[in-house]
Write a structure and sequence with these properties.
Multidrug efflux transporter AcrB transmembrane fold; Alpha-Beta Plaits; 2 domains; 4-stranded antiparallel beta sheet; two-stranded parallel sheet; 6 strands; about 70% helix; elongated
Length: about 280
């Protein structure tokens, strides 16, 4: 596998994946859910078993998006997150549930303010930044600084592509999206570390060979493992996308995009960046 010879094409592909998302972010931004913009939370327990689709049908009758997050919290208990509702609108919705789905107990009705949403946004950005800095420090200590730079650039590319795709298609961004981004960071760095570890071993065993040969051999020795691992995760996520329901849909989509892009960046971005930095050193 001639990773180093193809690196410029890989950089170009990466740029083509990033640019549309960045343009979309500047033009239309993200479709932020109520976790960020604020909204209402209704926690109810039905007397009789009801299906989630029945709840969504009632929401549709009150002109509330049927795609709002609904979480089953226990025995016939559901937590429904909606755009901000007045006290009268909340009462009407609860009465609508009673009329169509039978008796229920209202366990709580809360509001998520926009201030809390802004705080969540800041904490999400801080979490991603801290994760990248800590990974850079860890890789610098275990390997060298140039490995750390390659890994962090690849990680940031993964995050930007996922965020860009969500902006392009205006898929809803909520707190589970942040969880997906952090999971993608952890998964991608693990895949990259495996390649870096093999490069380090080959640097010791093949001291006289040029860096491009070492990188290509190292990637070739680990590529089967990377692809097999990704396919295993993709199969699981695919099943979850089909059977997991609307609540998990965007979390799974973020994970699918991030895992696939992460595999690409581990092979074609992280190691070639290290190679470019290394040959400039000499």
């Amino acid at each position: 596998m001639y990773v180093t010879k193809l690196r410029k094409y890989a950089y170009l592909i990466s740029l083509l994946l990033i640019l549309p998302g960045l343009v979309s972010l500047f033009i239309q931004g993200l479709n932020l859910g109520i976790d960020f913009t604020g909204g209402s939370l209704i926690h109810v327990q039905f007397e009789k078993p009801v299906k989630m689709e029945q709840i969504r049908n009632v929401l549709g009758q009150y002109e509330i998006d049927r795609g709002v997050p609904i979480q089953q919290a226990g025995n016939n208990e559901y937590i429904i997150r909606t755009p901000i509702l007045t006290e009268q609108q909340s009462s009407q919705l609860v009465q609508g549930f009673r009329d169509h789905l039978g008796n229920l107990d209202v366990l709580r009705i809360d509001e998520v303010g926009a201030v809390i949403g802004k705080e969540l946004t800041n904490k999400a950005l801080m979490a991603i930044g801290i994760a990248c800095v800590l990974m850079l420090i860890y890789i610098t200590i275990r390997f060298e600084f140039k490995f750390g730079v390659g890994a962090v650039v690849a990680l940031l590319q993964n995050v930007v592509i996922v965020v860009g795709v969500f902006s392009l298609f205006q898929w809803e961004v909520d707190s589970t999206f942040i969880a997906a981004l952090l999971t993608i960071l952890g998964y991608s760095i693990n895949d990259t570390i495996v390649v870096f570890d093999r490069i380090r071993e080959n640097l010791k065993l093949r001291r006289r060979e040029p860096y491009d040969v070492i990188v290509d051999k190292s990637v070739l020795q680990t590529v089967n493992r990377s692809i097999n691992t990704v396919l295993t995760v993709v199969f699981c996520l695919g099943a979850l996308l089909l059977l997991g329901g609307a609540t998990l849909k965007y979390f799974v989509l973020a994970m699918l995009i991030g895992i696939v892009v992460g595999c690409f960046s581990s092979i074609f971005i992280a190691s070639p960046i290290w190679y470019d930095l290394k040959i400039r050193e000499n």
